[in-house]
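Dear colleagues,

As part of the handover before I leave the project, I'm documenting each prediction I ran so the next person doesn't have to rerun anything. This entry is a single chain, and its sequence is reproduced below.
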Amino acid sequence: AGTVATGFASLREALDAAGRLSHGQEALARALEDRASALQAELTHARACVERLRRDRQLRGMKALAAAVLPAGAATAVVSRGDQELLDVVGTGAGHFPQGRRGAFAGYHPADSAWAIGHLESLRRKGVRYLVLPATSYWWLDHYADFMRHLHSQHQRVWSDQYGIVFRLRSPRE
């Protein structure tokens, strides 16, 4: 009987120790999850800071590009994705491309190159003299290849750098 009692006591001690260990593991797991959440928040913040620095650099570059290339107040279409801050740094004559009837961002990208060409030519007939393609929209170079061919064959590329490309649109009389 003593051996059985000793065995039960040992078993009880082993179970108690396992419970304490399990409780400790749970606490450790919670602490690790809390730290992982804190690190994720720090990483998200750091990414946002890096993105803001990139955006600030892009806007400064676009402002310098506009000052160097565009005549003050020149009617300029900017591939903007609706970004008013981008228009502001380009200058007072800047407008969205594509744009709706009232000049606001159309809310979508062109369906294809033919649509983009037609829209640009319509704006050109209304007095737009420049098209600015910011570096953030360089994907247009491949996606709208026929539009790019049109720009190069019908208009003049006057600037290209890491911040953007500027085309001077021929006047309707040319």
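The first strand starts at residue 76 and ends at 79. The mean pLDDT is 88.

All the best with the project,
I.
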